Amino acid sequence: xxxxxxxxxxxxxxxxxxxxxxxxxxxxxxxxxxxxxxxxxxxxxxxxxxxxxxxxxxxxxxxxxxxxxxxxxxxxxxxxxxxxxxxxxxxxxxxxxxxxxxxxxxxxxxxxxxxxxxxxxxxxxxxxxxxxxxxxxxxxxxxxxxxxxxxxxxxxxxxxxxxxxxxxxxxxxxxxxxxxxxxxxxxxxxxxxxxxxxxxxxxxxxxxxxxxxxxxxxxxxxxxxxxxxxxxxxxxxxxxxxxxxxxxxxxxxxxxxxxxxxxxxxxxxxxxxxxxxxxxxxxxxxxxxxxxxxxxxxxxxxxxxxxxxxxxxxxxxxxxxxxxxxxxxxxxxxxxxxxxxxxxxxxxxxxxxxxxxxxxxxxxxxxxxxxxxxxxxxxxxxxxxxxxxxxxxxxxxxxxxxxxxxxxxxxxxxxxxxxxxxxxxxxxxxxxxxxxxxxxxxxxxxxxxxxxxxxxx
Length: 457
Fold this sequence. Notes:
By secondary structure, this protein is of the alpha/beta class.
């Protein structure tokens, strides 16, 4: 349902707004919704916090270190109240949801708080701050049930040729190390029609890559309880005409179905790339994490996926230093990674939080040992990645051009279907010219642990 109209005075509409996003791509989508809502109500948007009258920080609080980063950034930007034009400072997102009872007291520089839902209400919040209506804290329910609008206006902040599409919000898996359900609420899906309509509209604007994101993409539409699932969505997407990529992030192994695999395998526009976080491989640790899966089931799922997508690039994540993880448990995971299953691996050190179920075990693994295990696991994966990338030398692969390289004006950069934006490596091009947002065949001439180098053919 669309939000109620907000009455914004002409003087408020002239206020310049600076919005900064911290954290994940899902936060980016929330920020894009806020930007569209602000523009709809005639606020002026700026990329310069120094000239903005209103500064908004869309925060992250998944881990303590992310919370600290968000707080420090809010404090840094509060300096513009004295050195710039800033009149109002606002925090939105996970930090405000997690610390809603104490954040305003801890950071008195804040003038307004908006939680981890209701992002379209940001004009209403700004209006209330200037009018002094006392409603400077909104959408701060204890457990928000985020309802994606069917007609979701956004201002795209990624390069024009790729976009993130949040297909659901929240999570109902209750992993013991995770605070997402308490911050973002239970799993809540958008309708198939709203997602398909958005993809159609974006393809008309030249978007060539759609990255489907959520907390648990495999469970898409299960909350509808009407037989709709991820396969239903993928089948509907496959009916859209055009040359584009669809990439899936955050797929849980437990609920990733054979039907979804069949649809992906039948349409080459679905990237041969799968992001499927495992978090661990030892059965005892997986049970303590409440992952609802064991090693045998993980390996069976991997075999099934490989039978449909033999060339797929796998991305996964692992956690080291979980409270019950022994050295033997870690060595099992190290051996598993060294077997060479994955093209991309993210490794996180366990973070002891005040709002997670695994907190009951304390934090017995020292930071030094967590760092050591993380480094060993990353070193093992780096060897695997180097070996896998060398197999591309001499091959021609399809690449989506991003434009001039951030490393050198003499290079172009892009990504293959095996490389997700923001998290994986790049293809650097030292021969040939091309426009950003176009597909080209690139012959790979050199390979490194994370990046490839080639020429347009």
